[in-house]
Write a structure and sequence with these properties.
Elements lengths: L10 H13 L3 H103 L3 H31 L8 E4 H18 L3 E5 L5 E4 L1 H17 L6 E9 L2 E8 L8 H4 L18 H11 L3 E5 L6 E8 L6 H4 L4
Parallel strand pairs: 2-4
Antiparallel strand pairs: 1-3, 4-5, 5-7, 6-7
Helix pairs in contact: 1-2, 2-3, 4-5, 5-7
């Protein structure tokens, strides 16, 4: 052999070894033995070297992957932060635009209220003095239309105030049972005109942390809607339940059932179903949902056991943990 694996081949030692093997009677087999040993150690050396090279490569690849993974995580965090800042920026812009639009609507509503009040007073006086029946009927029609516009302006003003963030719920300890009774008393005249029976069922005392004025506004709007869409001699059922942390108010009317997308669209601002054209403004239900949302509650249409529509309020009893300390007796 011309070369050894680990160092230069030592010819003298090789010959000495050969002589010793020859003296021992293993001349040919000794040479073969030496050659095989050299080959075996050579293969072993190359295998070990290859193993260490592969192992080192694997370590390097793992380190590179860890560094790449850290870079990816860092990039994702930066991107997440950038997107969050962008969303917050856009949210602020939208909120500012909404407040600005709310302020415009509020100003317009205020500007309309005064002249409408004057026109309404004048028309009512003219109606009382008019002797011609046809002219009187036309004047009464004008009075009714102006009243309709006045009511719409009031609702728009309230929506504008909510949009502009100028309304907050002044929470106070209230008996929800009594508040609903007052709402029913106020709209009872509308039900009597259509011979609609209103059935109210509740527990004696349901104490709620709320703004009584706005809660009654929300409930009244839904009750008026229920009466408007209930035919002559129909039924409106009002049910108040204590559901643990929430109070649940269900208002059922025996009118047409709402299906599919109508259940959500009914809460869109200015949306009216076909049967409701010219019956209202398409604002009341939207206002009710906004009010309940400000009380951290929900308002939606749920399934009815029979033909008709059921609106369901879910209002938390105490919104804040420290609510009791901020409540005053009514």
């Amino acid at each position: 052999m011309e070369h050894a694996v680990f160092r230069s081949f030592d010819e003298e030692k090789y010959e000495l070894g050969s002589i010793q093997m020859k003296n021992a009677g293993y001349e040919e087999s000794g040479k073969l033995y030496l050659k095989e040993n050299i080959k075996t150690y050579g293969r072993l050396f190359y295998c070990i070297t290859a193993f260490f090279i592969c192992f080192a490569g694997l370590i390097l690849e793992i380190c590179r992957n860890e560094r790449t993974e850290k870079e990816i995580v860092q990039y994702m965090e930066q991107e997440k932060k950038r997107i969050y800042e962008q969303v917050q920026k856009e949210k602020t812009i939208v909120q500012n635009e909404r407040k600005k639009m709310g302020t415009y609507m509020e100003n317009i509503s205020h500007q309309l209220k005064t002249p409408m009040a004057g026109m309404l007073l004048t028309l009512e006086n003219l109606t009382e003095l008019e002797e011609n029946q046809k002219k009187k009927e036309k004047l009464e029609s004008c009075v009714n239309q102006l009243c309709w516009m006045k009511d719409m302006t009031i609702v728009l003003l309230r929506l504008a105030q909510i949009d502009a963030g100028k309304i907050w719920m002044k929470r106070k300890r209230e008996n929800l049972t009594v508040l609903i009774e007052k709402c029913i008393d106020r709209i009872k005249i509308l039900a009597e005109e259509k011979y609609i029976f209103i059935h109210y069922e509740s527990e004696e005392e349901c104490i709620l942390s709320c703004d009584a004025f706005w809660i009654q506004e929300a409930i009244e709007n839904v009750l008026k809607n229920a009466i408007e869409f209930t035919s002559q001699c129909g039924i409106v059922n009002v049910l108040l339940l204590d559901s643990g942390d929430n109070y649940v108010i269900q208002i059922f009317n025996s009118g047409k059932s709402l299906e599919g997308n109508e259940r959500e669209h009914i809460f869109d601002r200015f949306y009216q179903i076909e049967e409701g054209k010219n019956k209202g403004f398409g604002i009341g239900l939207n206002l009710s949902r906004e009010i309940i949302s400000l009380h951290q509650g929900t308002l939606q249409v749920v399934d009815s056991k029979k033909e008709g529509t059921t609106f369901e309020f879910r209002i938390p009893k105490m919104v804040a943990k420290e609510a009791d300390k901020n409540l005053t007796e009514s």
